[in-house]
Amino acid sequence: MSIMIKRASLGRSFRIQLRVIGALLMREIITRYGRHNIGFLWLFAEPMMFTLGVTALWMMADATHGSNLPITAFALTGYSSVLVWRNTVGRTTAAIMPNLSLMYHRNVRVIDIFASRIILEIVGAGASFVILTLFFLGIEWIIPPHDILKVIFGWAMLAWFGAGLALFLGALSERSEVIEKLWHPISYLLFPLSGAAFMVEWLPQQAQNVVLYLPMVHGVEILREGFFGSAVHAHYDMGYMAVCNLCLTLFGFAMERDISRRVEPE
């Protein structure tokens, strides 16, 4: 009997949690994008405009990076993957204090605010990636991915990395405002090292050893292998990336639990 009661209580708590996150998602969309013009479609349009802009610049510059890979597909896979972790962290740092009044609602917790923002950014980046891929396929600027399951797996790992990093740095930024200030220059420094503009194979051996310490590089490499198949020689260790993602997630939950004790009313 007690087991059934616990299951019912757990199920009810889960449904409440989903409703809270759903409400926070809608609030975030309305607050950020409003009800005018194209409204929430800016969620997809912003990352699409960024990726299209970078792709156009590369094409006008006739950039190839010494490779015969299609520049459109190369830019699409690179810069779309950057957005999934850079924007996610940007939305969670210093996110609690402006929303502190929400904590007085009994069912709203710190993790709910983080989760709603993380989900929103991942959905936006993912949707723009899919829409742009279908668009470029339709106008025949790119060819279909060689292994769609590998593309999906690579994207999922990048999304997990972005979520774990956002949770960890978001919670850490509530303990020190320095984290938010440092993230912006650090994200710009990580941008050229993230694998967006190169394949690991193109680098000298010593440089390869260095960049492969960055978890997101492994995700970009397997994503591009899924897109280009045998046309590229990808370097990745998904076990290493999974361990890094798991550590970020666990540390993030630990930090979030500590922050919750500080800001949530009794």
Keywords for this entry:
266 residues, mainly alpha, disordered N terminus
What can you see in these coordinates?
The two termini are 31 Å apart. The chain contains 9 helices and no strands. It has one domain. Helix 2 crosses helix 3, helix 2 (42-60) packs across helix 4 and helix 5 (148-173) runs antiparallel to helix 8 (215-228). With 266 residues, the chain is an all-alpha fold. The chain has helices at residues 2-33, 42-60, 71-92, 110-138, 148-173, 178-190, 205-211, 215-228, 238-263.
Topology, element by element:
Layout: H1 2-33, H2 42-60, H3 71-92, H4 110-138, H5 148-173, H6 178-190, H7 205-211, H8 215-228, H9 238-263
Number of strands: 0
Q: Which oligomeric form is depicted?
A: single chain
Mean pLDDT value: 84
Class of secondary structure makeup: mainly alpha
Number of helices: 9
N-to-C span: 31 Å
> Main beta sheet: strand number and arrangement?
none
Into which percentage range does the β-strand content fall? Answer: under 5%
User: Helix fraction?
Assistant: over 70%
Stretches where pLDDT is under 50 for at least 5 consecutive residues are 1-6
Global morphology = globular
Order of helices and strands: HHHHHHHHH
Question: Which value, in Å, is the CA radius of gyration?
Answer: 20 Å
Number of separate structural domains: 1
